[in-house]
Amino acid sequence: MRFHFPLYSSSSFSLFSDFTFISSLPLIFSSSHFSPFISMAPAFEPLSPPHQEAEPQTATPHHADTVNNFGNDGQVVSKSKVTVVGSGNWGSVAAKLIASNTLKLNSFHDEVRMWVFEETLQTDEKLTDVINKTNENVKYLPGIKLGKNVIADPDLDNAVKDANMLVFVTPHQFMEGICKRLVGKVRGDVEAISLIKGMEVKMEGPCMISNLISEQLGINCSVLMGANIANEIAVEKFSEATVGYRDNREIAEQWVKLFSTPYFMVTPVQDVEGVELCGTLKNVVAIAAGFVDGLEMGNNTKAAIMRIGLREMRAFSKLLFSSVRDSTFFESCGVADVITTCLGGRNRKVAEAFARNGGKRSFDDLEAEMLQGQKLQGVSTAREVYEVLSHRGWLELFPLFATVHEICVGRLPPSAIVEYSEKKPRLSLLEDPACYQ
Questions:
Q1: What is this structure's pTM?
Q2: Is 60 exceeded by the pLDDT of residue 57?
Q3: d(Cα 411, Cα 409) in Å, to the nearest integer?
Q4: How many Å apart are CA 302 and CA 393, to the nearest integer?
Q5: Gene3D superfamilies, alphabetically (predicted)?
Q6: Which residue would you say has higher pLDDT here, 58 or 134?
């Protein structure tokens, strides 16, 4: 027997209780939270202004091969060198943001290397050659100048060899192979940040991409997630993002300085797992929203899907990592990213087409036709989440996540997104309150 939403009432079981959310509401309405329009100060953890080290615009550029500069007091200033590993739509926008700041900040080399998976264009030219000649990624971000200090490099080893700040932004399914190629090739003092939305599922359980990078390369890895549709940031429309960091506040400040611009405000949060899981799981919710759009079910249904999806995101995250903070879900990486991805992201777009075709065309076919080489994340993430839920006996607790995967693989029709099989929640999973603090 099948029932329509809501998937569960507010009294169903304590895992999805909203009391902690309600207690966080005063934080949202503090004046500092709306700081982009007041003082540009971040919401929860104020930092020094992103460009306090900015040089006068008349200053001569730094040379990329210079390791150190001398400050005004004659002291040697160590300069960080940045490489962006990835050159798709979001990777190219990240390189643009970073390159605009390395020219202004005395603590960074001007040059920003961007590793490009080499492709031959229809003109028979190499993509890296065209990027370096035109200062534009003509395939993945046409019409946008990246900055003359962005150097495209098809050689991964060469791109990272001198860098001590690595920005990873590739489809998550490629990251294990990339990490294996980089073992022993990166400097021991490297700091990394992942902009990748996805996770790996191994025999021992789920592995976040930041952990994969840290474990395989022996380096610290922060994360940056948020309501970030790349094409809007590329044309400098105002947006926000969240940096999740572990223990080192100084490293978080470096990443904030490197990414922040007047149109891209970055807020630090000491919650790597929470920030990263928000960025990962919201793509599954966006697939569900796309099904709703494809079936023309209306805005009320879509809003319900988004609300239920956010609750499942929070519950799943806190079951996996008890350290995840409720306040993280009110940052750009949380509710804001759910909203923007369900309204305008590629996962929503392709899922809409899937539903309009009654599930008769595969996601692989639609991806190839609609995304010009870009990759979906939501379908593979839904599969990985389903594997975790199945392995741990949690499928009944997460009906939306489970249903998305079953629709994607053809076991259920797209219309099943507003239905679920009647199953009694397994409250025994939640008997230990400590697991959900």
A1: 0.80
A2: no
A3: 6
A4: 28
A5: N-(1-d-carboxylethyl)-l-norvaline Dehydrogenase, domain 2, NAD(P)-binding Rossmann-like Domain
A6: 134
Q: Which residue in the list 139, 197, 257, 282 is annotated as catalytic?
A: 282
Distances (CA, A) of 273 to 292, 314, 332: 29, 11, 15
**Residue of higher predicted confidence among 70 and 352:** 352
- Residue 236 in this model has a pLDDT that exceeds 50: yes
Higher pLDDT, 377 or 33: 377
Contact, 303 vs 335, CB < 8 A?
Answer: no
- Read off the pLDDT of each residue in 408-427 and give the average, rounded to a whole number: 74
> Which residues are bridge partners to 419 per DSSP?
4
Q: How far is CA 372 from CA 286, 346, 376, in A?
A: 20, 11, 11
- Please report the pLDDT score of residue 78 as a whole number: 79
For every residue of 280-332, DSSP letters joined together read HHHHHHHHHHHHHHHTT--HHHHHHHHHHHHHHHHHHHHHH-TT--GGGGGSI
Bond preceding residue 6 cis, omega within 30 of 0: yes
Q: Residue 155 — φ and ψ, nearest 5°?
A: -100, 105
Please say if the pLDDT value at position 48 is more than 80: no
Domains of the chain: 80-270 (3.40.50.720), 276-435 (1.10.1040.10)
Residues 331 and 227 sit within 8 Å (Cβ to Cβ) = no
Q: For residue 181, is pLDDT > 90?
A: yes
Q: Strands 191-194 and 108-115, how do they pair?
A: unpaired
pLDDT at 64 over 80: no
Residue-wise DSSP of 184-246: TTS-TT-EEEE----EEEETTEEEEHHHHHHHHH--EEEEEESS--HHHHHTT--EEEEEE-S
10 Å Cβ neighbour count for 157?
A: 12
Q: How many CA atoms lie within 13 A of 309 on its CB side?
A: 34
Give the Cα separation of 204 and 223 in Å (integer): 23
Mean pLDDT of all residues belonging to the chain? 82
Roughly how many angstroms between the first and final C-alpha of the chain, as a whole number?
Answer: 35
Q: Is 237 a catalytic residue?
A: no
SS3 content of the chain, % helix, strand, coil (to 5): 45, 15, 35
**Angle at CA of residue 120, ends 116 and 122, nearest 5°:** 130
For residues 163 and 115, the answer to whether their CB atoms sit within 8 Å is no
Does the pLDDT value for residue 293 go beyond 70?
yes
Q: Which two tokens stand for residue 169?
A: 């932004």
